[in-house]
C-alpha cells in the first residue's frame, strides 16, 4: 500500500511542481515586458525626436517642455520634473537651451540617473556680442544641422546603451537607419541648394546658423539667437534695406512666433511670409527638416 501511494505521489508532486514553474515563468515574462522599457526624460521637442528615432519602442519617453511652448522662455514646474526622480536617463541639448537644467538636476534625488548633454562632440558655432556674456560662448541650435544632428543622435545612442546594454544592437541599428535618412536628405538638398545663386535667408530668431553652414547659406534674423526682446526699429529698418537690396522673396517666421515684424518687413519689401520650424516645440525630425529645406529652396529659386 505504501509503495503504491509513493508511486502516485511522485507524479503528482512533479505535476504540481511543473505547473507551478510554468505559471511563475508566465508572470515573469509579463513583468519583464513592462520593466524592460527604459524610462527616458528629455528637455524639449528636438531632443525627443532624436531620442525616439534611436530608442523606438524600447523606451518610455517624457518631454519636459510641453508641445507648442516656446522653449527659450520655459521654466519647469515641479510636476514637469517629477518624472526625473524615477528615470534612468535625462537627455538635454545644453549650450543654454535649457538654462533651468542644472538647478533642476541638483534638486532631484535619483542616484541612478545618467545624464547626456547632446551637443558634445558637435562642431559648434560661436555666439557674438552680448550673447556670450548672457548665454555662453556657443549657438545652441545644433540639431538644425543635419550633420550635427547625427552627432547628437550618436550621443543619445551611447546614453541608451549605457543604461540598457541588452538592447545595444537595436539602438545601433536604429542609429544606422536614422543616419541613412539624414544623409539621403542632405545629399538631395545639397545638390538643389548649392547650385542656386541666392544664398540669403531672413528668419524670425537666429536659429538657423547651423543649417545655413551645412548648405553655404547666410542667415539674417529679426531676433537674436535666444529669441529675446522686441527688435528695435533700427534693426527692422536694416533688415528691410538688406532684404530690398538682395531681393528677398520670402521672409520666414517660426511657428508660434508673433507674425507682426515678419509681416511688416515682407510688406515693405514686397515679399511673402512663410513659416519655418525650429523643431523647438513641435514637428517630426526628418519630415520637418525636409519641409524646411523645401521651403528654403523655393524661396531662393
Ligand atoms: Zn531657438
Automatic annotation (TrEMBL):
Annotated keywords: Coiled coil, Signal, Transport
Q: Reply yes or no: does the keyword Coiled coil apply.
A: yes
Q: Which family does it belong to?
A: Belongs to the bacterial solute-binding protein 9 family.
- Pfam families membership: ZnuA (PF01297)
Coiled-coil stretches, from where to where? 168-199
Signal peptide limits: 1-22
Q: Which InterPro entries match?
A: Bact_metal-bind_prot9, ZnuA-like
Q: Which PROSITE patterns match?
A: PROKAR_LIPOPROTEIN
Report what the protein is called. Answer: Metal ABC transporter substrate-binding protein
Amino acid at each position: 500500500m505504501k509503495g503504491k501511494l509513493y508511486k502516485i505521489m511522485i507524479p503528482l508532486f512533479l505535476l504540481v511542481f511543473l505547473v507551478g514553474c510554468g505559471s511563475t515563468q508566465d508572470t515573469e515574462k509579463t513583468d519583464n515586458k513592462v520593466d524592460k522599457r527604459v524610462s527616458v526624460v528629455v528637455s524639449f521637442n528636438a531632443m525627443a525626436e532624436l531620442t525616439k528615432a534611436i530608442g523606438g519602442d524600447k523606451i518610455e519617453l517624457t518631454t519636459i517642455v510641453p508641445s507648442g511652448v516656446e522653449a527659450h522662455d520655459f521654466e519647469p514646474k515641479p510636476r514637469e520634473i517629477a518624472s526625473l526622480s524615477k528615470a534612468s536617463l535625462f537627455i538635454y541639448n545644453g549650450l543654454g537651451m535649457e538654462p533651468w537644467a542644472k538647478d533642476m538636476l541638483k534638486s532631484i534625488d535619483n542616484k541612478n540617473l545618467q545624464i547626456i548633454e547632446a551637443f558634445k562632440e558637435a562642431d559648434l558655432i560661436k555666439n557674438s556680442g552680448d550673447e556670450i556674456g548672457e548665454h555662453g560662448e556657443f549657438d545652441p541650435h545644433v540639431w538644425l544641422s543635419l550633420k550635427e544632428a547625427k552627432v547628437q543622435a550618436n550621443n543619445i545612442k551611447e546614453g541608451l546603451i549605457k543604461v540598457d546594454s541588452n538592447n545595444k544592437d537595436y539602438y545601433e541599428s536604429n542609429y544606422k537607419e536614422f543616419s541613412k535618412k539624414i544623409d539621403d536628405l542632405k545629399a538631395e538638398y545639397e545638390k538643389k541648394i548649392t547650385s542656386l545663386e541666392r544664398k540669403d535667408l531672413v528668419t524670425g530668431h537666429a536659429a538657423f546658423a547651423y543649417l545655413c553652414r551645412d548648405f553655404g547659406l547666410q542667415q539674417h534674423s529679426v531676433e537674436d539667437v535666444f529669441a529675446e526682446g522686441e527688435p528695435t526699429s533700427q534693426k527692422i529698418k536694416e533688415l528691410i534695406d538688406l532684404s530690398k537690396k538682395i531681393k528677398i522673396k520670402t521672409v520666414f517666421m517660426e511657428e508660434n512666433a508673433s507674425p507682426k515684424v515678419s509681416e511688416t518687413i515682407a510688406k515693405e519689401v514686397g515679399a511673402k511670409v512663410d513659416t519655418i520650424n525650429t523643431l523647438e516645440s513641435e514637428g517630426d525630425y526628418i519630415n520637418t527638416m525636409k519641409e524646411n529645406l523645401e521651403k528654403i529652396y523655393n524661396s531662393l529659386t
